[in-house]
Amino acid sequence: MSMFLDTAKIQVKAGKGGDGMVAFRREKYVPNGGPWGGDGGRGGDVIFVVDEGLRTLMDFRYNRHFKAQSGEKGMTKGMHGRGAEDLIVRVPQGTTVRDAETGKVITDLIEHGQRFVVAHGGRGGRGNIRFATPKNPAPEISENGEPGQERELLLELKVLADVGLVGFPSVGKSTLLSVITSAKPKIGAYHFTTIVPNLGMVRTQSGESFAVADLPGLIEGASQGVGLGTQFLRHIERTRVILHVIDMSASEGRDPYEDYLAINKELESYNLRLMERPQIIVANKMDMPDSAENLKEFKKKLAANYDEFEELPQIFPISSLTKQGLATLLDATAELLDKTPEFLLYEESDMEDEAYYGFDEETPAFEISRDDDATWVLSGDKLEKLFTMTNFDRDESIMKFSRQLRGMGVDEALRARGAKDGDLVRIGSFEFEFVD
To answer: Which of 95, 111, 155, 403 has its CA 20 to 30 A from that of 231?
Structure first.
């Protein structure tokens, strides 16, 4: 069983803010001490940190829920509760984080040590020391802590490699990787020997170095899920140069040129932008009989499909077995990498809008609907947040919440919708009677 995992769905929940405290100063020589309840501490964030020592998302196979600690409650003497520590979650380089609900890209983590807050902790609730006024010098009002952000995420690993080896199964990609790097991929005389991407570092004779990924063999229909399907096509998206390896000996009875067209068609079908990447054609197995003749025929067919003024892809005949032509191929690859820029992986439309943790003035503060049992239902982010942060154990806090609802126009809106005295109104699981 392969221990490589490149996709995962997880749930993250930031810590809730600590509740504010209701307390009063009662000391022998301090008359009229007044309120003395402190604020709650901040809840912990959930932070992703890139760790170059990780190679797969295997850690997320069995551990799919990540929850940060809540902040401490406020204390007497006006002391704040302690803020919770952030939850650090380590991910491999090349991890793309998407929102599972919208599919939008939240962040793309590619640099070692890069940090990103994927869920923000809630702020602490205010203690009664914050609500003292000349009219109410001894308030029994406090706030509950703000809930932490909770979301479901899709993690997608795309290996970091400068060069990607593509081609049909058994064309010699793994053998090529094993002779140009120190990687030890599995090599066998059967299809789909490679079932996970293999990475290796190449150092040319001129001292240039770059990372190469041997991607599992593609076949016709891969972009629609045939064979290993799109399971590993995503890994080529980060590469800047593609080495298209072709079995020029036609040892399995296929036409090398038809193989070339078929693989390019799959790359184009998966992501049209993959065709922007420069390709070098690697004519492999030139030590085999008929390879030289097949290469001549391949070049004729290739030239026939290009206009007179179009530049043909470079073709390098090699033999991984005898190491013929490898130095020239690697030097040309390094030279092409030097003049090839990074490719933009995501469009603006793919990215999630920059997070805003207040309330949008254009978004209605509340919405009113009616349930099947004729109960009026109030909803909306602002209203629900006020409800969650209200301490219903204190009468003054309940009265404050009622005034806030009235100030938001909830009473008038219910009346306009036809609510009558004694009708039930529900917020979440909390019900109360409407008083006209």
So the answer is: 111
Q: Which H or E element spans position 367?
A: strand 367-370
Q: How far apart are CA 373 and CA 357, in angstroms?
A: 35
Model pLDDT, residue 1: 36
What sign results for the dihedral spanned by CA atoms 270, 275, 277, 278? positive
Check whether 190 has a pLDDT greater than 70: no
In terms of C-beta density within 10 A (0-12 exposed, 13-18 middle, 19 or more buried), how is residue 202 classed?
buried
Query: Does the pLDDT at position 158 exceed 70?
Result: yes
The pLDDT, as a whole number, for residue 182 is: 80
**Alpha carbon distance 273, 349 (integer Å):** 15
Q: Are 246 and 282 in contact (CB under 8 A)?
A: yes
> Is residue 348 pLDDT above 80, yes or no?
no
Rounded-to-integer distance, Cα 165 and Cα 264, Å: 13
Copy the structure tokens of residue 414: 């219910």
What is the DSSP secondary structure assignment for residue 42, as one 8-state letter?
P
Q: DSSP label at 272?
A: G
CA–CA separation, 176 vs 79, rounded Å? 66
N residues, the chain = 436
Whether the per-residue pLDDT at 306 is higher than 90: the answer is: no
Cα separation, 396 vs 404, whole angstroms: 12
**Is residue 386 a contact partner of residue 395, using CB atoms and an 8 Å limit?**
no
Find, among 7, 9, 121, the residue nearest to 70 by Cα: 121
Spatial separation of the C-alpha atoms in residues 154 and 60, rounded to whole Å: 11
Nearest to 153 by CA among 46, 298, 306, 266: 46
- Residues 419 and 406: their CA atoms lie apart, in Å, by 15
pLDDT-derived band of residue 230, with 50, 70 and 90 as boundaries?
Answer: low
